[in-house]
Every structure is written in structure tokens, then in C-alpha cells.
């Protein structure tokens, strides 16, 4: 049976790119994936739905003589970004875009699955179609729904993320932590609104929130070992309605990031202390939510990563680079805290970063990615 062509991979990627959906709403996307899988030879395939996660799906390829079960995960969701590329196949879902490359991730996964559906592997291979990577920790929800048990237990798991700054098709990886752990910060301060002319009768939450934002910026600068590093970013604030009204409420939304879980926890403690201090100093209510869910640091397994890097370096047809860690987050970190495995980069050569409205990953990476990973999985199962 013939392997998938570059033209078909390109079409899948273009189709999926046009129908991005937000976390937990990937209904069109999973329908497309199910339809693609339905036209593959079914002889070695078994599928499984995920309770309470209707947009997730598992597909198992039964091995000839299985001694292990490998896992390969792709995420499905898009982002609330309005696409500004000039691509002929740009998003048809206004205000939503595959700005993190999950259309590329899914296409590569389908390319690999296509191969193994036609050429039975020696071991079992489970493809995880995981919703909600950007928000709501779909990886954690999927794992915690107890689907990866019994015959569906995975011994080693792999997954990739596109990397705009690597040449198209280059594979990148590293020992240890690849991506940071993240915690979302939500703060609401409640004081008292009033007339701009009578500040003594009001309790201004814009002033309080401004102090809080500034104090938060001392955490990485003054409390974190500079060699270890971390990030505290407040990406959104909301307060006030008019120039002459004192805002009685103010809210903020941000993210904490670090490569080690212990640093995340230490930063969280400082955020709590600073928030308590602001509440006391400004005599206001502070409702603080720190939400990490499954976004643990993405810690690659030592033994499996050594094997992965050695294999990739040894292939004349694969360009491989050892990369630095990145402060992006990934709920694959949760899966790696439960199952040994490796996350790696696939270069897609774009001048725009992940989450940019102009991100346009090069489709040239698709065929190279599918071939490199398929060959690696075959080597693992030899
Ligand atoms: C690869 C990537 O960009 N991942 C996202 C993950 C978001 C995690 C969570 N919702 C948060 O904001 O902390 C990222 O922003 O790094």
C-alpha cells in the first residue's frame, strides 16, 4: 500500500488550518480527523472515546508481536487570535487561528498514523488526539479520565511542538526540561468607587493594582536565582470606566513561568505574600487565583532522550540540533509526569513567533517530520 503523499499532507494541513477551534470545542477538527482515519485500512486499528472529553480520541495500531506500547500525542486546539497572514487557506473561523501550529502537529500525527495503518508495526502504538492544550489542561483531563490503563497503558510517549526559529524540517531536542511549567494568575481587587475630585472618600483600585504589578516585577529580579530564572508577566489588566470616576475594582491576568517546579512554587508564594500586603496596605479585598493545572515543566526522560538524540544525530537525512529550554508552557508536562517520554521541536522556519497573528509555518516541514518520526518509531519497535 502506498504511503501518504506530500500533496495529501499539504491538503490536510490546509484543511485543518482553516477550521481552528478553541479549547474543548474542537468538534469540527475531531470530525475531520475521524473521517481521515475512517478511510485508512482498519485491520490493525482500534479506537477509544474519552469520557467527559468529547473532542478527544485515541487510536491504537495493534502491533504484530507487541512487547511494549508507544504513545504519540498531538494537540487539537487553536487560539483566540485573528489571523493576519495572507495565506490562501487562512482561518475561516473569525477570531480563532492555529497560531501555535497545532494544525501542523495534527498533520504530522495523521501522516505517521497513515503509515502504520498500512504497515503493521511490531509493537502497539497509541495516537492521542488531545483537546485543550492552550487552556484547561486537556492532557491532564485526558490522563485523569483513566483511559490510558489496561490494554491502553503506554510505556513511552512522544510529542512534538513546532519551532518557528529552526529551519523547516529540523528536529530539536534537549535532555532535561524542554519547556517551562506555567501558572495562570488571576487577581481581582475590590475597593470603593467614587468621584475623581474626592479621592479621600473612595478607595482607588487602579492605584492599588499598579503597585501590585510593579511589586510583582521584583520577584524575578530580587527573589529568584538569576542562573535559574523565571518569568512573571501580567498580560492583561482591566479597570475603570471614565476619566473622572475612581475605579472601585481592578483585575489582572498573567502568567508565572519557570523551568523547575520548585521555582514556580517559590514565585507563587511571593505573589501570595505581595497580594496580601497590597490588600492590607490599600485596605481592599484581593481575590487571587493561581492556576497551574497540568502545565508542569516538560521534563524529558533521561534514557529515552539519550536514545532519541543519538538516533536523530545518526541519520544522514535528518538535521538535528540540541536546543535551549524555552519558557513556553505545554500540558505535555503533565503526561510526562505520569509516563516517561520525550517532547521535541520540529522546525518550521517562520519570522513570526508562536501565538503571532502572522505565524505561517512552512509546510515543507511536514514530509520531513513524518519521515523522521516514523523511522524513529520503527527503530524503537525493531
Ligand atoms: C506552546 C505554548 O505556547 N503553550 C502555551 C500554554 C499555555 C498555558 C497556560 N494556559 C498559561 O497561560 O499559563 C503558552 O502560553 O506557553
UniProtKB/TrEMBL annotation:
<dbReference type="InterPro" id="IPR017439">
    <property type="entry name" value="Amidohydrolase"/>
</dbReference>
<dbReference type="InterPro" id="IPR002933">
    <property type="entry name" value="Peptidase_M20"/>
</dbReference>
<dbReference type="InterPro" id="IPR036264">
    <property type="entry name" value="Bact_exopeptidase_dim_dom"/>
</dbReference>
<protein>
    <submittedName>
        <fullName>N-acetyldiaminopimelate deacetylase</fullName>
    </submittedName>
</protein>
<dbReference type="InterPro" id="IPR011650">
    <property type="entry name" value="Peptidase_M20_dimer"/>
</dbReference>
<dbReference type="Pfam" id="PF01546">
    <property type="entry name" value="Peptidase_M20"/>
</dbReference>
<feature type="domain" description="Peptidase M20 dimerisation">
    <location>
        <begin position="182"/>
        <end position="275"/>
    </location>
</feature>
<dbReference type="Pfam" id="PF07687">
    <property type="entry name" value="M20_dimer"/>
</dbReference>
Amino acid at each position: 500500500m502506498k504511503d501518504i503523499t506530500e500533496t495529501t499532507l499539504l491538503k490536510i494541513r490546509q484543511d485543518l488550518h482553516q477550521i481552528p477551534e478553541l479549547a474543548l470545542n474542537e468538534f469540527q477538527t475531531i470530525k475531520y480527523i475521524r473521517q481521515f482515519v475512517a478511510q485508512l485500512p482498519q485491520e490493525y486499528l482500534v479506537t477509544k472515546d474519552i469520557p467527559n472529553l468529547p473532542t478527544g480520541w485515541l487510536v491504537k495500531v495493534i502491533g504484530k508481536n507487541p512487547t511494549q506500547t508507544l504513545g504519540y500525542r498531538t494537540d487539537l486546539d487553536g487560539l483566540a487570535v485573528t489571523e493576519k497572514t495572507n495565506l490562501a487557506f487562512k482561518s475561516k473561523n473569525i477570531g480563532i487561528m492555529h497560531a501555535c501550529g497545532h494544525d501542523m502537529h495534527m498533520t504530522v500525527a495523521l501522516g505517521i498514523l497513515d503509515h502504520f495503518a498500512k504497515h503493521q508495526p511490531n509493537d502497539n502504538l497509541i495516537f492521542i488526539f488531545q483537546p485543550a492544550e492552550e487552556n484547561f489542561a486537556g492532557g491532564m483531563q485526558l490522563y485523569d479520565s483513566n483511559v490510558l490503563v489496561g490494554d491502553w497503558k503506554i510505556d513511552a510517549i512522544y510529542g512534538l511542538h513546532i519551532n518557528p526559529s529552526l529551519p523547516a524540517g529540523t528536529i530539536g531536542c534537549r535532555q532535561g526540561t524542554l519547556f517551562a511549567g506555567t501558572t495562570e494568575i488571576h487577581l481581582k481587587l475590590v475597593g470603593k468607587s467614587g468621584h475623581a475630585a474626592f479621592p479621600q472618600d473612595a478607595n482607588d483600585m487602579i492605584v492599588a493594582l499598579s503597585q501590585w504589578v510593579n511589586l510583582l516585577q521584583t520577584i524575578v529580579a530580587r527573589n529568584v536565582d538569576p542562573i535559574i530564572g523565571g518569568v512573571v508577566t501580567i498580560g492583561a489588566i482591566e479597570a475603570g470606566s471614565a476619566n473622572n470616576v475612581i475605579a472601585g475594582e481592578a483585575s489582572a491576568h498573567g502568567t508565572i513561568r519557570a523551568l523547575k517546579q520548585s521555582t514556580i512554587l517559590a514565585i507563587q508564594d511571593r505573589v501570595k505574600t505581595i497580594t496580601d500586603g497590597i490588600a492590607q496596605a490599600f485596605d481592599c479585598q484581593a481575590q487571587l487565583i493561581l492556576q497551574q493545572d497540568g502545565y508542569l515543566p516538560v521534563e524529558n526522560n533521561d534514557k529515552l532522550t539519550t536514545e532519541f538524540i543519538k538516533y536523530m544525530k545518526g541519520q544522514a537525512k535528518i538535521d538535528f540540533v540540541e536546543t535551549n529550554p524555552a519558557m513556553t508552557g505545554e500540558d505535555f508536562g503533565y503526561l510526562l509526569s505520569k509516563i516517561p517520554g520525550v517532547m521535541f521541536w520540529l522546525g518550521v522556519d517562520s519570522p513570526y513567533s508562536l501565538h503571532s497573528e502572522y505565524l505561517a509555518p512552512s509546510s515543507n516541514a511536514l514530509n520531513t517530520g513524518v519521515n523522521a518520526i516514523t523511522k524513529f518509531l520503527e527503530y524503537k519497535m525493531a
